TrEMBL record, chain A:
It comes from the Bacteria. NCBIfam families: hisF. Pathway: Amino-acid biosynthesis; L-histidine biosynthesis; L-histidine from 5-phospho-alpha-D-ribose 1-diphosphate: step 5/9. GO terms for cellular component: cytoplasm. It is found in: Cytoplasm. This is Imidazole glycerol phosphate synthase subunit HisF.
From TrEMBL, chain B:
This is Imidazole glycerol phosphate synthase subunit HisH. It holds the Pfam family GATase. The keyword Hydrolase applies. GO terms for biological process: L-histidine biosynthetic process. Keywords: Amino-acid biosynthesis, Cytoplasm, Glutamine amidotransferase, Histidine biosynthesis, Hydrolase, Lyase. Heterodimer of HisH and HisF. The gene is hisH. PANTHER family: IMIDAZOLE GLYCEROL PHOSPHATE SYNTHASE SUBUNIT HISH.
Length: 253, 212
């Protein structure tokens, strides 16, 4: 049976991890490749790199990070941040990414997702949705790191973009991101139940119970977290044991 | 000993290349090269056919390079070189792919590639993530691998084989989903061994050692 995935996410800027990974003795905690190796060894099911300062000029830096990571890690790698065109997708796939994530570009032009999925297959096209609660049971897409409202309903967008060919949704609750108060469960469930493709829950994890809630109550197929792992509060193994004890099927390594 | 990973412009070969090269180094398994050169495929001792994306697109891309396609067929069908298909590369071993349209495959393993239809509507398609293998038949590539070990899958279609004995492993996903097929000198894996950590690397090493 398919297992629920635990995905650590590393924010990368100019080829460096923004908040270094602290749970093992790394020679260079700011090196994304070393951090990725540590997570691979720790039993992470996938990895996610988010290029938070993606610009045209520093693209080569990220490609180099992806290339070196792919040479050292034998688990799937998703890369997002600044992806705008099918060519951007192609460059990252050739560098060694397994999946590439669209964000703002998919909101501005949903057809770019269709073009990328037709060319490379839905299996490698992720769409990252950043949503905020606007009224109870109503969520709106925000872009530009949560600063720009779009007026687009998040659930409708998720349905439409998976029809276009998105193979997975990376859903971040902008209300919860950074709060450590847990996932936005109603939002997660509304989207997970609305689409046929896997949904990764993101934003707000502070405890291991939150991971359980995202899957059990939010119906997510995977959970993404950053700080609870990066700072050594919990290991991947502890997270998996906790989820297994709650009756969630995970891959124990 | 030369292992050729066929590059027909279908997907990311970088991680596959690195994983095969690493295991070849560890077991003294010779050279691994990524190639679209028919001559290299013709003289390779082992052949790996990867593939990501849609069946018709991959089949067309492979056939589009006629010399390469013919070299592959000749090496596997006439010279019995050990062959490993990965993901869509495994699906291409089928007689038919039913994705979007009906497309003929290499026809090495009887059966067709059809949409995954889990009997539980809560199960998502694509089947994406780690699933535990159920080994149906022993095979040298499973040396050190057992039922219950996990592999990484990402696909929406799967191989329904005609001859049950040619399905070597499966997983459960609202019904049986074929994980490994094989006969004679050919083997195919639906999952990505190059993305399946120690279990996958083990199977890659086993393939590189396999002398059918």
């Amino acid at each position: 049976m398919l297992k629920t995935r635990i995905i650590p996410c590393l924010d990368v800027a100019d080829g460096r991890v923004v908040k270094g990974v602290n749970f093992v003795d790394l020679v260079d905690a700011g090196d994304p490749v070393e951090s990725a190796r540590a997570y691979d060894a720790a039993g992470a099911d996938e990895l996610c790199f988010l290029d938070i300062h993606a610009t045209h000029e520093n693209r080569g830096t990220m490609h180099d990070v992806v290339r070196r990571t792919a040479e050292n890690c034998y688990i799937p790698l998703t890369v997002g941040g600044g992806v705008r065109t099918p060519e951007d997708v192609r460059d990252l796939l050739l560098a060694g990414a397994d999946k590439v994530s669209f964000n703002s570009a998919a909101v501005a032009d949903p057809d770019v997702v269709a073009r990328a999925a037709d060319r490379f297959g839905s299996q490698c096209i992720v769409v990252a949705i950043d949503a905020k609660t606007v009224s109870p049971g109503k969520w709106e897409i925000f872009t530009h790191g949560g600063r720009k409202a779009t007026g687009i309903d998040a659930v409708e967008f998720a349905r439409m973009i998976t029809d276009k060919g998105a193979g997975e949704i990376l859903l971040t609750s902008m209300d919860r991101d950074g709060t450590r108060a847990g996932f936005n469960i109603p939002l997660t469930r509304a989207i997970a139940d609305a689409v046929d493709v896997p949904v990764i829950a993101s934003g707000g994890v502070g405890t291991l119970d939150h991971l359980v809630e995202g899957v059990r109550d939010g119906h997510a197929s995977a959970v993404l977290a950053a700080s609870i792992f990066h700072f050594g509060e919990y290991t991947i193994a502890q997270a998996k044991e906790h989820m297994a004890a709650a009756g969630i099927e995970v891959r124990l390594t | 000993m030369l292992t050729a990973i066929i590059d027909y412009e279908s997907g990311n070969l970088h991680s596959a290349e690195k994983a095969f090269q690493r295991m070849a180094r560890e077991i003294d398994g010779g050279t691994v090269t990524v190639t679209s050169d028919a001559d290299v495929v013709a003289r390779a001792d082992r052949i790996v056919l990867p593939g990501d994306g849609a069946f018709p697109a991959c089949a067309a891309a492979l056939r589009g390079q006629s010399g390469l396609y013919d070299a592959l067929r000749e090496a596997v069908e006439q010279h019995a070189r050990p062959f490993l298909g990965i993901c869509v590369g495994m699906q291409l071993m089928a007689e038919w792919g039913r994705e979007y349209s009906d497309t003929s495959g290499l026809g090495w393993i009887g059966g067709e590639v059809v949409k995954i239809t889990p009997d539980d509507p809560a199960l998502k398609v694509p089947h994406m993530g780690w699933n535990d293998l159920v080994i149906d038949a022993p095979h040298p590539v499973f040396d050190g691998v057992k039922t219950g070990d996990h592999a990484y899958f990402v696909h929406s279609y799967h191989f329904r084989v005609t001859t049950p004995a040619q399905r070597l492993a499966h997983v459960n996903y609202g019904g049986d989903v074929t994980a490994v097929v094989g006969r004679d000198t050919m083997i195919g894996m639906q999952f990505h061994p190059e993305k399946s950590q120690a279990v996958g690397l083990r199977m890659i090493a086993n393939f590189l050692r396999w002398t059918p």
